[in-house]
Amino acid sequence: MFLALQTGVVDAVVWPYFDLITYGLEKVIKYRIDPPLWRAGWAAFFMNAKSFDALPKDLQKLMVDTMTELEKDAPRMFGELAAKEAAKLRAAGLTTIKISEAEWREAQRVAWEKSLPEIMRKVSPRYGEEMIKLVGRFYPPKEPFPAVD
User: Fold this and answer.
1) Which of 6, 80, 94, 135 has the largest count of CB atoms under 10 Å?
2) Measuring CA to CA, which residue among 71, 81, 92 is closest to residue 27?
3) Do 81 and 23 lie in a common domain?
């Protein structure tokens, strides 16, 4: 990604709302959009269902309860990380482009209607439709993600 941006092979990338500096991308990008079109930092945990079912019930409960608590705190934790990085990005010379709520909603609609379900089907022909149904309960988001800058 870095080389593609640096050499002009691509003009832009879709990236979560933080962790640009981790990959040195602040050196090859000039702009970022706010509020973010995409968030990362969800507290996801995946485990083989048979392995989970084989655990003692008290450990199953501990895992579920721990993830539930982490999930509640994840927006705050990742929001703080994004705000700290936004300050560093400004210092590195990046310009934030503020988009309206209507523009944000349109971007989410297009992403959902034109690409995300198709990507899920390609990534997992076996489980793609099931994932689309699950994710479709939450996507597109009902409200814009909090602005970082």
Assistant:
1) 94
2) 92
3) yes
Radius of gyration from C-alpha coordinates of the chain: 18
What's the token pair of residue 46? 């995946």
Q: Are 85 and 132 in the same domain?
A: no
| 16 and 55 together in one domain | yes
- For residue 146, what are the CA distances in angstroms to 37, 80, 100? 10, 11, 12
Q: How far apart are CA 50 and CA 101, in angstroms?
A: 43
**Secondary structure of residue 55 in the 3-state scheme:** coil
Find out whether 97 and 32 touch, Cβ atoms under 8 Å: yes
Query: Which sign does the torsion angle of CA 31, 34, 38, 42 carry?
Result: positive
Q: Is 149 within a domain?
A: no
Look up the domain containing 126 and give its range: 101-144
51 and 85 share a domain? yes
- What's the CA gap between 110 and 129, in Å, rounded? 19
| 77-92: b (≥16 Cβ within 10 Å) or e | ebbeebeebbeebeee
97-106 tens-digit pLDDT: 999 999 999 9
